[in-house]
Amino acid sequence: MTAIGWVQIILYCAIIVALTPLLGGYMTRVFNGERTFLAPVLRPVEVLLYRAGGVDEKSEQGWLAYTVAMLLFHVGGFVILYALLRLQGALPFNPAGMTGVPPDLSFNTAISFLTNTNWQNYGGESTLSYLVQMLGLTHQNFLSAATGIVLAVALIRGFARASAKTVGNFWVDITRCTLYVLLPICVVYTLFLVWQGMPQTLGSYIDATTLEGAKQTIAVGPVASQVAIKMLGTNGGGFFNANAAHPFENPTALSNFVQMLSIFALGAALTNVFGRMVGNPRQGWAILAAMGVLFIAGVAVCYWAEANGTHILSSLGLSGGNMEGKEVRFGIVASALFAVITTAASCGAVNAMHDSFTALGGMIPLINMELGEIVVGGVGAGLYGMLLFVIVTVFVAGLMVGRTPEYVGKKIEAREVKMAMLAILILPLMMLGWTAVAVVYPPAVASMANAGPHGFSEVLYAYTSMTANNGSAFAGLTGNTLFYNLSGAVAMFIGRFWMIVPAMAIAGALAAKKSVPPSLGTFPTTGGLFVGLLVGVILIVGGLTFFPALALGPIVEHLSMLAGSVF
Amino acid sequence: MLKEIRPAIVFIVGLTIITGLIYPLAMTGIAGAIFPSQAQGSLIEKDGKVIGSALIGQSFTEAKYFHGRPSATTGPDPKDPTKSVSAPYNAANSGGSNLGPTSKALADRLKEDVATLKQENPSAAVPVDLVTTSASGLDPDISPAAALFQVPRVAKARSVPESSVRALVESETRGRWLDLLGEPRVNVLKLNLALDAMKS
Fold first, then answer.
1. CB atoms within 10 A of CB A553
2. Does residue A385 belong to the interface with chain B, where contact is any CB pair within 8 Å?
3. What is the 3-class SS of A518-553, one letter each residue?
4. What's the pTM?
5. A318–B126 C-beta distance less than 8 A
6. Which residues of A touch B1 (CB under 8 A)?
7. Domain coordinates of chain B in residue numbers?
């Protein structure tokens, strides 16, 4: 580890903290239906959509209607994306002549982008046409991100409102989120990325003759416009197979730094939206602080492990850290930092190959996802995931003193705690359950690229990533098989919607409750004690479940590495 | 529920057109006008022919050129397209080795490569980036140490003094952005182009 490495990490955290109230204030205005400075351009488009859809923007929905609208919207998105994947061979914008994607891979990919996972069992530049990348994937990147954000906003309204029947209007929220938050940032962001060297063209792949006279086909495409929303919306699906490690998808150290910022920007800002909407910004900062503690701890371990390297490297006298699967322009620190950010959020973009990380360095991304990606998390999903843990935390605190727990003026009762536990328990069930099936099913075992404990880690990482809707991988695993395509689609689908429906039920129940003013017996949820308790609950409830599985994978691998074993 | 079907169709189609067509096509037009070179892929031309991209590494094997990092990319086997074979710096199929920290295959590969490089230049420590594969398989850069390590070989193959090759490496070395972000690096293709230009 170097001083300049830590300076980069601290600078990163400082900028995120500075951006949080700025973006949070703006997003609060957007979701409160206030006029923004972009209204002169975008308001006509917004009104046109409401008119065509027959939506009255003043009327609101209860939690159930809101959820049903969201689900219907996803059915439409799935149909479009699946059809595009299957039919791409017959559609325009296909200069490389890609043929239709097979049914199981199309199914997996459609679910993957619908659920904001962006798990990729295909190589972008070798499988997909430009039309699918734009109309299929770029659009789903926007909409799955917007969905996460508006669901979080609906849950926030549940906390903020008292004796209310409604939590907002899904159609209005999704439109305003897309038009006023995501799209304008992406326009500026795309231009920045192209300036840094990212291609943005509809032209065909380039045929070059190298300096030594060999042929090199260079894949290009409308990369920047997709990468902008891929990062901002914590989607993470790469235009290219190597994702953000590809020099066209992440050309410079500066583009890398800004991409890391954009992963956390909206998720962190949502904690501020929460604070503002419940009437006390400190509530939002307390949540961000708990996230920050877990984040810094993860970065420190991962950076230390990668900088230390592996036994194989040191025995050959190679120093400078574990550079296998990393790019020179990023080096150790920016690769380790990126890995922790992308799995703390549900982004899943990678600028280094996690499969080649050291055992402990690769364990941090795993833990981040196993905890449910609540360290900032996916846009929206991170906040509602974190609020579920908050409910459990105030419940535990309430048990200690024998009082009905309260949080931001709402009594937390049996229904909320049951719903929160329902959502939290689905993660281990999907992650560990599918891993257990895969490691005893011979065709699934055959997909492992590495032998020994690392092979187990590859499978565990796959189901953890898919269930948590992350999308990063220990990419040696051959995921494009019938078994992984279908079981993975189930894990991604359940991992997304089994969180969402209970969270929305909580939103509805909370909105209907009366607001109780804080009394002397109210546990303050803005101080260090609460932050500490929250971190503790996350690590115990979320973490201990996974310890046995981690012991079989990364932990035993680390111990064998220290003993000098190879597999 | 039925009354939500009309908005579901309208919003999915409307927002799909805005975010999936208008946005990427407009950005393609604007970016192409403002940054034409980058938007096309930062291509480098020599005598009117494209020789590569400044951002994409290419395979160098001759002694007179600086070599990039090992690349784990693959391509279809010419004899049997259903199988894939090693094809370094295949810029149509990026990817890494994905070998783990306790992989025997990785250990064997590293041992062999380190031995070869030690033979080539016994006087310096082998730089780690010169024997490890990159994440993309297309890394255009090597560390300054990895470039300096190759100076004796390149100078000998070109029959030029080592000092002039070393000076060229130093002038092609790029530092951190604002002395802060990223790592110092040398773009291999640009360095080799500068080498060819120096000869004349």
1. 26
2. no
3. CCCCCCCCCCHHHHHHHHHHHHHHHHHHHHHHHHHH
4. 0.96
5. yes
6. 68, 72
7. 1-40, 42-199
